[in-house]
Amino acid sequence: MSIDHKERISVAAASPNMGSYEEAHASFDWSEVEKQFTWHETGKVNMAFEAIDRHLAEGRGQKTALLYSDPKRDESYTFEQLSLLSNRFSNVLRKLGLAKGERLFIFMPRSPELYVALLGSLKLGVVVGPLFEAFMETAVKDRLLDSTATAIVTTPALLPRIKRDELPDLKHVIVVSDEGVPEGTISYKDEMAAASEEAQIEWLDREDGLLIHYTSGSTGKPKGVFHVQNAMLQHYHTGRIVLDLKEDDVYWCTADPGWVTGTSYGIFAPWLNGATNVVRGGRFSPQDWYTTLQRYGVTVWYSAPTAFRMLMGAGDDSVAQYDLSSLRHVLSVGEPLNPEVVRWGLKVYGQRIHDTWWMTETGGQLICNYPSMEIKPGSMGRPIPGVEAAIIDDAGNELPPYRMGNLAVRTPWPSMMRKIWNNPAKYEEYFRIPGWYISGDSAYRDEDGYFWFQGRIDDVINTAGERVGPFEVESKLVEHPAVAEAGVIGKPDPMRGEIIKAFISLREGFEPSDELKADIARFVKEGLSAHASPREIEFKDKLPKTRSGKIMRRVLKAWELDLPTGDLSTIED
Ligand code: 6R9
After folding, report:
1. What ipTM did this prediction achieve?
2. Which PROSITE patterns does UniProt cross-reference here (predicted)?
């Protein structure tokens, strides 16, 4: 059985920060969360201060804030050290003449300098645009041009991808390097050495800018999703009740800051809650990740379905060699979490994997599974206290349980995007039904208020009059012993409207064959339903994925139908 609405994974014995879900909802008030921050008294705020400097005054200055390692470096930083380093960086920018509201991009692989530069920029009220290191020339140019960025922090290896003569607004190129830096660029190392450790923090309004995260749409150029300081309410609150962070936690979010998960939950949520934050650079491998978990004694681990599926594919033996007994809370985001993965996590880690749903546009988690809640494998959980979600039709009517429709969220919530840079029309589209944010995801709700993701609205398949979510077919497919990953699309068909086509990558040790295709199709037919069984199967070595690990179904569809693929800047390879 792939999705079983009756299946429950009960609550583990522990004392989570949030007790009963129902009680937390009934008594919730955002104004209580606000009391955590300085603006409560002063009316002014600064994310970098709240995430880092505040801990110095509260006796956590000597506590480890950042545990950084990659195959070449191995370092640790206290909250005080991060405070002083980010002070220095804010002075570097001040000297260059940068001011509140200007856009600075960070284009480099994970390193302590990335985090220092980000925090230092925020101290000055500069709006940060994080970029994946994998971006090529055009992707970098599009984003810098659209946002008229004036500064960028990068490394010598990535420098050639910044076409300065095509970027009239870009004045400052700061290069992080142990060696000298090219003429016309600014040396991070030299400027940091010369800068003072004391800095003037720019006190901001709650609606002042924080980040601009570019995210790709299916058509057109990427959208600059603009977030403000006020988002810290959501980051702090969800860090407490969803990540369940406590004073002694060693927390590891595996996401890169180029993806919103790597900022909201790789930087802000853990540090606003005073946790020790692990950052591991370099490439993914099961051995490397398990070593990281073991070595630091990670207690709370936030990752993505694509990673869990790869770890599952590496086999249970690869887990057994490590001592992962420090783990007490595991979470996932980015794609639907297949029930099979949840069951596997319970078996090999002895942990429930908690799915969380949210988007770049929402700035923070909205629908989640909590430590205090029963998990229904395949469901993304229930709205966080302070947020209302619903399934509505295109006219805005709420739909009854188990009816598939638009996943919508009641506006506003603290970390909601405040604009799409340069594109007010695009922004308005999300709010076309009064009172609601329309996510673009399709889902249904059950009688207990749990939400079940089906696919992006555009991905839902209509075959012989039945609406089929690609996720339930993919979840069945990955239960087949030969299947590593699966992406399912609807392919136009004169008879049936659409037929289901599955793209499949195989696990180690399996070879493509017609017999295997037939066996997989039969497996879905017998385990799920005849109409959901793929009529076509194509084997691929790899499926197209985004940098954040999402299977790009629109690309599969474009390949299949010979259509333009749209923006590919976030594709993995
Ligand atoms: C944080 C992030 C957003 C889209 C979202 C949905 C998919 C994210 C999910 C999930 C099913 C989950 N998504 N979490 N689908 N279950 N728990 O991922 O932001 O990169 O903007 O993507 O990702 O389709 O609309 P972003």
Report:
1. 1.00
2. AMP_BINDING
